[in-house]
Amino acid sequence: VLSHNLCTVLNVPHDPVALEEHFRDDDEGPVSNQGYMPYLNKFILEKVQGNFDKVEFNRMCWTLCAKKNLSKSPLLISDEDAFKVWVIFNFLSEDKYPLIIVPEEIEYLLKKITEAMGAGWQQEQFDHYKIALNTSREGLSAWELIDLIGSGQFSKGMDRQTVSMAINEVFNELILDVLKQGYMLKKGHKRKNWMERWFVLKPNIISYYVSEDLKEKKGDIILDGNCCVEALPDKDGKKCLFLIKCLDKTFEISASDKKKKQEWIQAIQSTVSLLRAGSAPPHKEARQKRKELRQKLQAEQEELERQMRELQAANENKQKELETVRKQLEAAAARAAEEEKKRLQTQVELQDRFSLELEREKMVRQKMEEQVAQKSSELEQYLQRVRELEEMYKQLQEALEDEKQARQDEETVRKLQARLLEEETAKRAELEKWHLQQQQAIQMTEAEKQELENQRMMKEQALQVAMEQLKQLELERKEALEQYEEVKKKLETAANNTKSWKDKVAHHEGLIRLIEPGSKNPHLITNWGPAAVTEAELEQRQRSWKGKKATS
Question: Tell me: the pLDDT tens digits for 348-386?
Fold first, then answer.
């Protein structure tokens, strides 16, 4: 029976006999709850085309659930009004099961009903009710909403008829999409007469009836984006005229007064503008905006709650950390107290020990002072001896300086003697070379003898000059030898002085050790005195002379 009625109301093609055959007494098939819901979705709801009467569908659903859930207490509204409130609830409720209507939508509905009744909205009273509602639940169910409106809590002083008319007006606007309705005069297309009709404006159509009971429809004005409405001047005794132009027809309508005329023109223009923009009716668009705003606020609230939970968790963690730190501080304080006690005990022990050590140190200090006094006298004697030694050291330094100067003079004389000896050696080599050349010249031919004789004479003259230079060098060498003897005497004198000072230093416990000259190697003696060359150099020069003689 339920499936048959659903198919009938929703205009779904069906065979009653096939339905009766399909739904047999079967606890596991379509008769069961688990079996009927898939059947309902697949074979009925998926075949709905949208061309059914929604009011009749809602009335059938109301019939199924009203008797079980509707309150038994007397209400200010009739069952028909309760049905309309139930349908409005389904339109305004949230898209989640179980269905509830949130306080914002309750406020919107009650405001619409209050405005339709022509009464003032009691905001303060609703705020108190909203606060009491939010503390217990998120919203109201359909039956609780019917009880709220039927109780008359927000319609005090209004009779049943006024409340019923207000509910019907809100029902027409929100459910039947009635944007405006009322009586106006319409000019006929054939007889050109004026007849009073009840006009109903919906988002895409204007229907006109004989009366407001909507039982006898006389026609429709199909609206689209190409329609327009214009005001007309008064004519034929008719006032407040306006014209509705469509693609195929034009309708002349007369309102009861200028205000009604302007309201109808604005309402029709707004409807055509919505059709051109492809927008939903105002109440549906407003509902969507309220829903989006609630979702946004809910998301912000959830984000805020999440942040609060995070802050609370962080705060709890901080509290735990502080508690841990407090316990650590208490433990540290206990340890510090224990350590302070031990430190004081140790300090007392140390003070006793330091007192004993201080007495011992005083005794040691007295002994040390006595020893210092004794050492001071010894130090004075030692310093006196050091001063005497320093005076001797100064005198010794002066003697060493004299000896050093004598050695420098001796070295200078030796260098001069070596230079003279080298010059003498060079002259002797030159004389020997000339002698060799003379020997070679004697062995030459007689033709060259005279020429060689001349050259020999010249060379003899040169040799004579060289002999004179050699004599001069001999004199200079003798003078250098005399200077060397004089320096040698000074050196011996300085050495004697050094030896006497050395004896004096040795006599004074040997505190200072003198710097003595190195050992003297034996010197070579030439015809003119001590030589300035070593034995190795002299042997090398002898080998050079022998080689030259052998060559000549």
Answer: 998 888 889 899 989 998 999 888 888 888 888 888 888
Contact 533, 442 (CB under 8 A): no
CA 327 to chain centre: 35
Query: What proportion of the chain, given as a percentage, has pLDDT over 90?
Result: 14
Rounded distance between C-alpha atoms, residue 113 and residue 57, angstroms: 24
Nearest in space to 270 (alpha carbons), one of 326, 189, 197, 201: 201
> What domain range is 392 assigned to?
384-416
* Any domain includes 158: yes
Instruction: State the helix-helix crossing angle for 103-117 and 142-150, rounded to 10 degrees.
Output: 30
Q: In this structure, are 240 and 185 located in the same domain?
A: yes
Q: Among the residues of 118-235, which ranges form H helices?
A: 123-136, 142-150, 160-174
* Best mean pLDDT range from 259-263, 509-513, 516-520: 259-263
Residues with Cβ within 8 Å of 117's Cβ and at least 6 positions away in sequence, in order, are: 155, 158, 162, 163, 165, 166
pLDDT band at 111 (very low <50, low <70, confident <90, very high): confident
How is residue 381 annotated by DSSP?
H
Radius of gyration of the chain from its Cα atoms, rounded to whole angstroms: 72
Is the residue at 198 inside a domain?
Answer: yes
Q: Token match 């962080």: residue? A: 314
My answer on whether 85 and 165 are in the same domain is: yes
Residues 81 and 83: their CA atoms lie apart, in Å, by 5
Which of these, 429, 419, 423, lies nearest to 541 by C-alpha position?
429
Residue 388 lies in a domain: yes
Sequence-distant (6+) residues with CB within 8 A of 448 are 441
Q: What is the pLDDT of residues 157-181, one digit of tens each?
A: 778 888 888 888 888 888 888 888 9
Contact status, residue 264 vs residue 255, Cβ threshold 8 Å: yes
Whether residues 154 and 80 share a domain: the answer is: yes
Report pLDDT digits (tens) over 293-312: 888 888 898 899 999 999 99
Are the CB atoms for 44 and 12 separated by under 8 Å? Answer: yes
Cα of 231 vs its chain's centroid, Å: 68
The pLDDT value recorded for residue 519 is 46
Nearest to 206 by CA among 110, 260, 272: 272
Cβ burial of 270 (10 Å; 0-12, 13-18, 19+) is: middle
Amino acid at 496: N
Phi-psi region of 516 (alpha: psi -120 to 50; beta: other; left: phi over 0): beta
- Answer whether 194's CB lies under 8 Å from 265's CB: no
Determine the angle formed by the axes of helices 54-69 and 2-9, rounding to 10 degrees: 150
Spatial distance between the Cα atoms of 478 and 3, rounded to a whole number of angstroms: 162
SS3 279: coil
Whether the bond between 517 and the residue before it is cis, its omega within 30 degrees of 0, is no
